């Protein structure tokens, strides 16, 4: 909980400072980095969600940066990555579940529930429980994927840190960094896919 609070305040301060340094005439390195990150997230969302991308960018960006910084704080000696505890990934998974269903209802109104009926109305009694289970299982899939990968990566990093005390093999630091970024990206990408399916009229 302490690490989560620290990350929360770090994100607020980081982006508050970054915002004051934005310039059209003389953009700095931080601005370039954030612009590239935004363009990358926007491009990914546009491919997945389509025309309504702009509406959902704040959620996707928030998910990505929150999970990324929560993953990375574990690289600091004495701190643990909150995402290696099951309840934290589950919280992000529940938030994503609520968000994409709300987005689907906003985009398609009551027609959103047609996806649970299947292509043929006769099969609806069979398909409705399956579709409900499928949607609920997404929360488990999102949380377990993030938790398992971060827990495993953290344990490997901590093991080598304990064995070698001060000198930690650089390769394991970069491995932990790679896993942290990759898992944040995968979680965000899956959130985009779920939102894209929910707001799609054809789906």
Strand-residue proportion = under 5%
Mean pLDDT equals: 86
Structural class of the helices, strands and pairings? mainly alpha
Count of separate structural domains = 1
Task: Report the helical percentage.
Answer: over 70%
Query: What is the number of helices?
Result: 6
- Topology as a string of helices (H) and strands (E): HHHHHH
- Strand count: 0
Explain this structure.
With 203 residues, the chain is mainly alpha-helical. It is built from six helices and no strands. Helices cover 75% and strands 0% of the residues. Helix 3 (53-72) packs antiparallel against helix 6. The longest helix has 41 residues, at 124-164. 26% of the residues are buried. The model has no long low-confidence stretch (mean pLDDT 86).
List key phrases describing it.
203 residues; mainly alpha; globular
């Amino acid at each position: 909980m302490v690490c989560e609070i620290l990350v929360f305040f770090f994100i607020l301060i980081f982006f508050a400072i970054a915002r004051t340094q934005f310039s059209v005439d003389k953009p700095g390195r931080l601005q370039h980095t954030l612009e590239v990150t935004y363009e990358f997230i926007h491009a990914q969302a546009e491919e997945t969600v389509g025309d309504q991308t702009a509406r959902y960018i704040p959620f996707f960006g928030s998910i990505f940066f929150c999970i990324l910084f929560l993953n990375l704080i574990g690289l600091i000696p004495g701190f643990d990555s909150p995402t290696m505890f099951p309840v934290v990934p589950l919280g992000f998974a529940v938030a994503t579940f609520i968000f994409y269903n709300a987005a689907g209802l906003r985009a398609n109104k009551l027609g959103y529930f047609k996806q649970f009926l299947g292509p043929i109305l006769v099969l609806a009694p069979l398909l409705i429980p399956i579709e409900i289970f499928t949607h609920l299982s997404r929360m488990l899939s999102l949380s377990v994927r993030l938790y398992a990968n971060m827990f495993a990566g953290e344990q490997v990093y901590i093991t080598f840190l304990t064995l070698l005390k001060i000198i930690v093999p650089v390769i394991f630091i970069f491995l932990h960094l790679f896993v942290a970024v990759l898992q944040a990206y995968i979680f965000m990408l899956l959130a985009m896919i779920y939102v894209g399916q929910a707001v799609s009229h054809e789906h």
